[in-house]
Amino acid sequence: MKRRTFVKTTGLIAGGLLLNKTDLFANRVNGVINIGVIGCGDRGKGIIRVLDEFPEKFKVTAVCDVLDMRLAEARKLAKNTPYIEYKDHRALLENKQLDAIIVAVPLNMHYPVAVDVLKSGKHLYLEKTMTYNIEQALNLVKLAESRPKQILQVGHQYRYSPLYYRVKEMISKGYLGKVSQVDCRWDRNANWRRPVPDASLERQINWRMYKEYSGGLVAELLSHQMDFINWAFDTHPADFLATGGIDVFKDGRETYDNVQLMLRYPDQNMVGNFGATCGNSRDGYLFKIKGTKGTVSLLTDRGMFYPEKGLPKEKGLVDGVTGATKISWDKEGGTPILPDPTRDGTWYALNDFYEKIGSGTLPDSNIYTGAKTAICVHLANQALYNNEIVHWKKEYLSLDRGTK
């Protein structure tokens, strides 16, 4: 069975999801969507700050967290009207004034909370990685398909960045030539630990360090780059090899602080290398896509194109590939892909969330693509922690229908 057996055109999918706009916002006033945020840790509070940049589109009216300290932190972000506060997300979902929900809880809770949100009839922005394991990913796809009037967007925000859109276009038009290698890193020199005011809260606050709750560095960081490769090349890995360990911080954590993955994409004849460490920050975020005609080197907000030696550095090449308004080569022979740095990817993603709720069409980062990347993360961690080579299974092929 070929990988594209189940591919559907975007138009057919989107057409099936088009909604009557009068059904979408029962409670909105002047086009503003009432938002509830479930999970007020670092990511949840960060999303609230971005939502506040769209006062004409979003209004955060309710927040939920199981920890009083997180609710107190979120309380400080409220502008004019205090948030309605909840300790139980199910109580928040009973609020009929809410149109859409942001879910930014620990990874092991993504699936049960997402199920409750969908069953409540509200639109959902679900942070990455979409689910904790493969079974949950496939089950959530089925549930979302049964509720086509609701938008479910997954928080892989680089799918919305103008920079990463441009790189995807460069790849599809062949400006990089034949891509055979992808090199990705997301490093830091820190233990990734949060302060714990009470020892009994250790696992709730530092959940990323414990396998029961977390997918570790692969889920929290490398999933973004893995997701972009899936999207840009319309692919997924077939073979997963990995190694790593708790090599830096001997502090009782269970998830590795030093990981290296090698993924094989046979349909692209391409190898992807993905690594992260908590013991060195020199590279930080590094993302290189290497082809026979040139290399793209990306940060989160800017990127450079480096043509292979021997290829002409002509104005046509610059304008055609990068869209630059003038030739601007750096000392290493590269030119900016876009003339200016982009905003944080979450800004673009939330802006599109609003637009997709209004149009009723499938987001770029949707239930199918989110499930595909969640499966990649799970298989990579299986290879990492079990020290084995793991393979993609043919029953996951139907997830290709969310490709754009």
TrEMBL record:
Residue stretches making up the GFO/IDH/MocA-like oxidoreductase domain: 166-296
Ranges where the Gfo/Idh/MocA-like oxidoreductase N-terminal domain occurs: 33-156
Record-level Gene Ontology MF annotations: nucleotide binding
Pfam families: GFO_IDH_MocA, GFO_IDH_MocA_C3
Signal peptide: none
InterPro entries registered for this protein in UniProt: Gfo/Idh/MocA-like_OxRdtase_N (IPR000683), Gfo/Idh/MocA_oxidrdct_glycsds (IPR050463), GFO_IDH_MocA-like_dom (IPR055170), NAD(P)-bd_dom_sf (IPR036291)
Name of the protein: Predicted dehydrogenase
Annotated organism of origin: Pedobacter westerhofensis
